Amino acid sequence: MHYLGRTALSKRIFTGLQPRRLGKLVAELAGTWMASEESRLRERRGHERLRAPGAGPDHELVFADRVIVTLVTLRFQLPHAALAELYRVDRSTVTRAIREVRPLLAARGFAVPGRPGLQLRTLADVFAYALAQGVELRLDGTEVQVRRQEGHCRHRRRGAHPVGRGVPAWPHA
Questions:
Q1: Which residue from 22, 61, 67, 123 has the fewest beta carbons nearer than 10 Å?
Q2: d(CA 5, CA 66)
């Protein structure tokens, strides 16, 4: 199905990429994602697939949409629920898609304009490149609110966290 999400969000203003580059990025990451997805499914099943590839239910978000949603989230920090509305899927579908695609983007690294073949894979790489090239970096310190599930951590009960209750936060020598 083709929803407003892909039509609007695939534009350069949202992804930061020209459509041709977005297509190349999707094609580059698709093989790695498909391999990891197949591995995940094989582990869950406990055996090799019984049906041919492509059999069974389709993903609610095709891989291209997963990449687009991830890029838009990284660029604008839009709430997952808002993106889910645009694609007419559940928020958890968007969250899962972003959780799957972010490591692929991180492993790929970031291309440097005008320097083909140069990929900055870590923050240390970015700082080293900026220092070597005399580039001034500006860090965005915007606070991003994170919603946590109730009872996710065993210490999350009111007053039960060890820090501040007479238990030191680190071991003393």
A1: 123
A2: 11
